[in-house]
Amino acid sequence: APKQRMSFSLSQGTRDYNPKQMAIRERVFNTIISCFKRHGAETIDTPVFELKETLTGKYGEDSKLIYDLKDQGGELLSLRYDLTVPFARYLAMNKITNIKRYHIAKVYRRDNPAMTRGRYREFYQCDFDIAGQYDGMIPDAECLKIVHEILSELDLGDFRIKVNDRRILDGMFAVCGVPDDKFRSICSTVDKLDKMPWEDVKKEMVNEKGLSEEVADRIGEYVSLQGGMDLAERLLQDHRMSQSKQVLPLARGLDYYTGIIYEAVLTQAGAVPAPAEAQKGAPAEESVSVGSVAGGGRYDGLVGMFDPKGRKVPCVGVSIGIERIFSIMEHKAEVSAEKVRTTEVQVMVASAQKNLLEEKLRLITELWDAGIKAEVMYKKNPKLLSQLQHCEESGIPLVAILGEQELKDGVVKLRVVATREEVDISRADLIAEIRKRTSEA
Amino acid sequence: APKQRMSFSLSQGTRDYNPKQMAIRERVFNTIISCFKRHGAETIDTPVFELKETLTGKYGEDSKLIYDLKDQGGELLSLRYDLTVPFARYLAMNKITNIKRYHIAKVYRRDNPAMTRGRYREFYQCDFDIAGQYDGMIPDAECLKIVHEILSELDLGDFRIKVNDRRILDGMFAVCGVPDDKFRSICSTVDKLDKMPWEDVKKEMVNEKGLSEEVADRIGEYVSLQGGMDLAERLLQDHRMSQSKQVLPLARGLDYYTGIIYEAVLTQAGAVPAPAEAQKGAPAEESVSVGSVAGGGRYDGLVGMFDPKGRKVPCVGVSIGIERIFSIMEHKAEVSAEKVRTTEVQVMVASAQKNLLEEKLRLITELWDAGIKAEVMYKKNPKLLSQLQHCEESGIPLVAILGEQELKDGVVKLRVVATREEVDISRADLIAEIRKRTSEA
């Protein structure tokens, strides 16, 4: 029955999270949210779809990757492509000029799966942004600090944070002889350097974007440069560059950046497993791709695009690309054979004898009322063995066993699953005993 | 500039959450998630869109409310309408026959805003479901227990949980003379009794669904019945009803229920504010609507619809309708003039003198490294007053003030915002002192 087979597949480029993956995801989110909160950020949420025109003209060439909703009468809607444009819309709409906020939510891109294996069409972004007119580059520096803190705490191995500035790129394009109206378009092409070798990038510049070979070669000279402060010095002495600090082969394809831009990549390629989907049929060319896990920059003009009077709100922010981090953490958990618990159940209420369902329900209700995480099997008369097995499988540390004798004596037999030790505890002391034993663990 | 004005509006039926609303939302979610975890549930996640055919034929008349994505080449996709159908698809796809899981996520319905004021087109559902072949109605009872626990803990005022069974409804339709092929369709109409008076419901049955007046009147007799165990007794003695326990005017529009169905309503109508949107233009007829905040039931056939061999997995679950609960909590916070904090910042690093930015950044880095939640203003030389005002506004309890003298002495002036008390603390003791003072609060 092919129709039925169809109906239980997932749409291309999307995934389910099973309980184990969710437990790992929760851990990663907790680390990231803790960092955002430590830096004093508030959080907001916006709808998953926006008016189509809200997204129009914000993403340059990438606009073709926006998911549109079907016109079912009414407004034309699109799924959000990132969290930055909705944030800018939110600021303009609510006339907010100062905020430090984080937003963790899914975004949607109709990426060509043949070209970008391992990228999902639905994926999480974890964004931290600072809006407001402030001194120097203090908020910009805090964003970089946050990337550094999160990547260090997640313990993903060595990483490098690449830094550039949109104004340096523009200056570079100008001295290379790129026509003004092609800056953005050429910038998108340069951005592909982390996925394609220079020869292919150059080919696109010449054949598709209409640059002369000569201009493309001049760009090639610059984008091959890499370094730290020493590079900044060299560029300052470059008579062709009017203003510069640092140039790195980093462009970031999005249209809206106006100042500093940055991207964090994992440098221990070996430690980075390709996501399952990518492994299946991915060719060797994949190895060109570095593990980009965070990126962002300054976008001082975006909010003004939503304001009727064009009032600007300077913004800088960073987005943590969480999917690759999930893959690494999942891989780590597998390699270390770590047993990831998917529930937090402290105790199972069990019985060795028959016809004790109601007694068990009475006991578990007491436990629930006291805030103890507890489970009971949904069978009238389950075997003790199957109750104990369930505990072993799901990592439940304690079993509270009821029997006729225990009921008469007003006690419960408390069994420690790991050691098989059993002690009789009076009903009155049971809750305290469970709390004590599970807070130790 | 009408185009610009358009571009910062939201799509109809959706909303942003500001930081204060998010703080309240987080509190509600924490209560609900704690309850789900206390009952030993795991959690999963599924994509926001599914293949269109996955949703086809699952929602009866409500199918017209499904959002479709535009055909941009490739698969035909729809936004999820609830979390139950994706759950069933997940079980079938992964051949899972036993699971207790919760899932909190947004769902999408193209509800007619003119008819259903106060209902959003994007809204959260908090679902708890138990899949598996179990004894008696133990899992069914646990779902009701969970509704009771959550509504009690959220302290929303009195509520009533209405219980019915799809099989009783079907029996009732049969004895009233409804043709078999109209059961589902008439059931949807009966479900509107919580939004429309009986006269309008009857009109729809006769004029739109083609029932005779006589049959409709007979249905009217049954659905006017309400009660507890006494009603069950009366129905058992009703010679027209072959099997019954309890009949209440509750139908639940969804197609997939096969056994017990339930819905929880808040009964203190006065305590339930209509959401802001609804208040604007809502007519008096709104008062017919009761505050439904949870619903669910047993659906033993749904998973089988996704299995090539039609293998069934019995399921029962409950969905907490969170939007109305958010509104009530927001309203409560407003009425009580409670100051809802939107960050958890413990201390602001401040200075009274100029040119101490680097010293402040050095100190705040020490605090962040120790896990202290701390903020510094993004100005080179902010006024002390504006730093203190920021603390008052956002509820930051402590200020760590640096000055030339303090730096020389190796101390920090720690100010308690509420009492204006100031004490000099040595740098070495600062972290412990902040922890002590903010864990007390």
Automatic annotation (TrEMBL), chains A, B:
Q: Which GO terms describe its molecular function?
A: ATP binding; histidine-tRNA ligase activity; identical protein binding; RNA binding
Is Nucleotide-binding found in the keyword set?
A: yes
Give the EC number(s) under which this enzyme is classified.
6.1.1.21
Sorted UniProt keywords: Aminoacyl-tRNA synthetase, ATP-binding, Ligase, Nucleotide-binding, Protein biosynthesis
Q: Which reaction does it catalyse?
A: tRNA(His) + L-histidine + ATP = L-histidyl-tRNA(His) + AMP + diphosphate + H(+)
Q: Which family does it belong to?
A: Belongs to the class-II aminoacyl-tRNA synthetase family.
Q: What is the lineage of its organism?
A: Eukaryota, Metazoa, Chordata, Craniata, Vertebrata
- Name the UniProt record assigns to this protein: histidine--tRNA ligase
Q: Name one GO biological process term.
A: histidyl-tRNA aminoacylation
Write down the species.
Sander lucioperca (Pike-perch)
Q: What class of enzyme is it?
A: ligase
Concerning PROSITE patterns, the annotation shows:
AA_TRNA_LIGASE_II
Q: Which is a Pfam family this sequence falls into?
A: HGTP_anticodon
Q: State if Membrane is listed as a keyword.
A: no
InterPro entries listed in its UniProt record = aa-tRNA-synth_II (IPR006195), aa-tRNA-synth_II/BPL/LPL (IPR045864), Anticodon-bd (IPR004154), Anticodon-bd_dom_sf (IPR036621), His-tRNA-ligase (IPR015807), HisRS-like_core (IPR041715), HisRS/HisZ (IPR004516), HisRS_anticodon (IPR033656)
Q: What's in the GO CC field?
A: cytosol; mitochondrion
